[in-house]
Amino acid sequence: LLQLYTTPEAAFEIQSEHELLTLHALYALMDENLGFIEANFCNRILNFFVLLEDQCNWDMLVKAIETGTLPNDDKLEISGDIRTKLASTMVPDPDRAKVLRQIRIDHRESLRLQKRNRDQNQSQALGDADNSSTSSYTSTSKSLARRIWPNLHTILASETGTFQIYGDILRKQYIGQDVTIYSPLYAATEGLIGVNPHIHGKSYILHPEAIFYEFYPIEHDEASDNLDDDDDDDDADDDVINPEKTLFIEQLEPGKEYEVIITNLTGLYRYRFGDVVRCVGYKHEAPIVEVAYRKGQFLNASGERTSEETFYKALSNTVSKKWNLSLKDYTTVEYFLEGNRKPRYVVFVELSEDADTTSMNNGSQRPFERVLTKKQKMQLDRALGVENKSYEALRRIGRLQPIEVITLRK
User: Fold this and answer.
1) So what's the pLDDT on residue 55?
2) How far apart are the C-alpha atoms of 67 and 61, rounded to whole Å?
3) pTM above the 0.70 mark?
4) What are phi and psi of 102, to 5 degrees?
5) More confident residue, 176 or 232
6) Rounded-to-integer distance, Cα 232 and Cα 236, Å
């Protein structure tokens, strides 16, 4: 199976993530006929492109291709025996190195023209008649990925749930719209769960013979049901399942969410492995599901139970539609450490001022490092209330403080 990949077998003996990722990048650059890139989740593919985008990394890798020698130990720390095995796979390829250097030059020029064209369009929108010329750049210009690998057609990785942010960044900055992100299987160490039959789809047909499934309905209580004074029992109740409420595979209802419980041939019996799925329909007699979230990964400061999916939807819509910025990454926590004051959410965000710029742009994609205004923070607070009525109710009666948003430097 490893023969399908550009990276030699010896590289997979390496335990360091950075060194292995660097070698994946090196051997991928060597092969201009690369057709697909694979990882479990989109964030790993994004890390791959971020590594390539760095000028120092790019120069180091292109030099290695040109000379047919691995980078020195101070740049690539791998053991002597693995280095020896990998060295035998390296052949000088100055022609490929020359092509790669020109690709970077051409891509930067394309981005420069893109920025000029965008600035001119903005001026025209403001009624500036003196800026009526147009740039030769169009939105159909090649992405960085397709410049390096003209035959690249598919990214095999999951972008469901909260990994959607990384899929969005990949499309904007690195692969464009002509490279498909496809997650063919819904699987875990416990076994194969479902198959995605549509290359542009994000749902899975449950495999009825791979695992014996049971499903526990997720009850979405109204906000008024969650406003009692005793919130400490909420998580405890989640750990207890009423066996009479579990459902079989043929009993799922479209539009409803369920915790997956599995029994498999390797000895797991009624195992709750943590995923919550949403039934979206049926293919003949097999349910079609989307992965909604991981059970337990809620913000639950006062009984409101905000899922990852809900929070990301509110945040991404606010960033793009209200703040006119681009969301690069984020993390959020419940914050209780303010004496007797009520809890609040604190979200740490990395933002960019140019929502439609791409990589290798010589700084035209400016990190947003200013403090957000109170009005902007309240826009996110209100958006979160729209997505989660329990949050809105708890904010209204003062059980939660307004959300705090902290912008981070890149």
Assistant:
1) 92
2) 10
3) yes
4) -70, -35
5) 176
6) 8
